[in-house]
User: Fold these one by one.
Assistant:
Number 1:
Amino acid sequence: MLKFSGPVWRILFLSQIDAPLAPARAPEGRFHYRGQTALYASLSAEGASVAIRRYVLAGDPPRVLQQAQVTKARLVDLRGQSDASIVWQDIRDKQGSSPTWSYSDSARDAGADGLLYSSRSRPDLSHIVLFSSSPALIHVDARAIPWVPMYLQPPLDR
């Protein structure tokens, strides 16, 4: 287990600005299932943009990029383990559970605060999932800024 302190980034709907550290709203995710808490973020703003790309549609409500600070988190490091960065949704749909959940279950059982893992589509980028949004573990340290993905921005007039 490693100790991690540093900045992380999340992309949220503007309507979520009053609760920027709320855990995932979906009952299931890469490293959580019903009844578990998970707060997903990235170790870079670019990583946050890559992580959310699958979920962004033209016409979505406005979004913001929110920076936060993690302090002394005890993390299991799964970076470089491609089986932790698979498309978990298809497997869950077929089998009823995701094999990635075993990683978070093991980390939770070991007393970890979360996991570090590689981006599926950009393994050079890293993401983090925290099992708690306790202020002792993570807090907002910067103002949110408007975010529009480059692939949805209109071309510049020349």
Number 2:
Amino acid sequence: MAITIAKENYPSFASGVGVSGKRQVLYVNYGEGATKDTPVWTLLGGLETNTLSISADTSTVQTKESGYWAEGTVTNKSYELSADVIMKRDNAAQQAIEEFLLDDAITAEKGALNIAVVDLDTKEYLSLVVVPKSWEITADGKDMIKKKLSATGVGEPKKMTGFIAAAG
């Protein structure tokens, strides 16, 4: 069976208009003078994939008064981050994550990392405090590298606007 391809069936786009979706990058709060309250955002790289799974545990009871429908309350909230990051080889943020995982003194003293998942188009971002669980190489090139970051959230994810990173 032959299929006829016709140019009329393709959608039209204005010159220079992107159609690929949002551009997201990952930053790490790391650098001279970096604190929890005044972050110094250091670029890690672009996100090829980004999954943030938020969940809540509940405690429920069923009573005659509720018609045996469960009544409950949230007892625990948590989140997990999984991201494939494409970056320049050996950048400062990459090394900060690796040292956090490798150096027991840093891990014990600092406890967690602060990262930002930033939408470059809107400057909206999620500020996340996470403990990395894995940091694995998935593709390796001469100047570029791709790694998969898996991390468990600590505390509340914060939706923010107006992301500003230091020039450099």
Number 3:
Amino acid sequence: MIGALGGLIGLGGAEFRLPLLIGPFRFGALEAVVLNKAMSLVVVATALIFRTRTVPLDAVATHWPIILNLLAGSLIGAWFGAGWAVRAKSETLYRVIAVLLTIIAVVLLVGHGFAESQPLLTGIWQLVAGIVSGLAIGVVASLLGVAGGELLIPTLVLLFGADIKLAGSLSLAVSLPTMLVGFTRYSRDQSFAVLGHNRTFLLVMALGSICGTFIGGLLLGLVPAFVLLPALSAILFISAAKVWRHQ
């Protein structure tokens, strides 16, 4: 189910997976973040491929300046975010993230009619805003073990004026290298061993995720674009509630 959501919207689905790993599956907080990161990598990589039926890779590649703009900040943020995560968790940070997700969801709903046509900023200010946004998203992605699509897609829609379906694929293109950097940083911590200790669980969930992203990629061609933005807003509200309660 989470994989299908990732394939349709362009998310790693980690905000929905993390409470399950910590709750019903009873993993420790940092172990859950590492497992979540691994599963999000599977979802992000396969969703980018399966979405090409509706959003071809050449359409994504033509927007390489936007991808590089966000990556300039997100790669640095991912490295430092992972470093902070293995040392401590900040309840205050989670509350700030939850509020931020809520604000973005409201902005997307209010600006539903024009958000996809005009970028919020242009020129050098857009470049600077892109780097700063990427930096913040990279930190958040590593701290929570998420792909960051919940923040990347609104950034692409609002800041760069991207179409919602294109924004989903661009988000995946930015998320993949960002997550790899964070994942590399986590590999230095002993909690990384959770992947080896739970190989069967990891494989089964990965297979389910791949099937899900395939279904989500097919649905992308059937679901109208005007449905996706409100759906993303709803996901942001739910994610905000989950992050607010996260310890």
